[in-house]
Write a structure and sequence with these properties.
mainly alpha, homodimer, DNA-binding, 74 residues, 4 helices, 55% helix, 9% strand
Chain lengths: 74, 74
Amino acid sequence: MLISEIGNRIKLRRKALRITQSDLSQLANISINTLYKIERGQTNPTIDIIEKIIAVLGLEMKLSVKESSINPLS
Amino acid sequence: MLISEIGNRIKLRRKALRITQSDLSQLANISINTLYKIERGQTNPTIDIIEKIIAVLGLEMKLSVKESSINPLS
DNA sequence: GAAAAATTCACATTATAGTGTGAAAAATGA
DNA sequence: TCATTTTTCACACTATAATGTGAATTTTTC
């Protein structure tokens, strides 16, 4: 999942919930500037910032083994 | 998924694949120091760094809607 | 189509993630 | 055991994410 994809998912979810960047940034306790850049894929955000945002949006992050690779090194 | 959880998942997967921190850091093209801190939850890594690591490990990141919240704001 | 609201953007500053080095400590294995 | 490998750690430095401000632009709404 690329950074720009994450940004897009966040933007789509925010729109679906009908809240503004300003609202979301305040609820997530981050700057509107940071949110703006993330949605546009113009920054390389930290996990902490992403977690704050998706928590407000009712999303969750998961790590899973890609089924195409049991052992990616072999 | 907390930062420490991500670090733990990475460490477990690395051990399962029987590679060293040194090997993984080189394959992911990041410093061993950064990997060491991530595995121990001692840093707040950027998405880019996490993506590099999990790509080598054959893992993938996913965002999903928490089933407990259709609308987290209401 | 004017006013209000929301988003985009540039710029400067601050905070901190990422790196490199080298050494100590712990784990591995012959 | 003891030599080798791996991990842990401190420290200094560099790169850049995050923030704050204010203004321009775009979108929404009446």
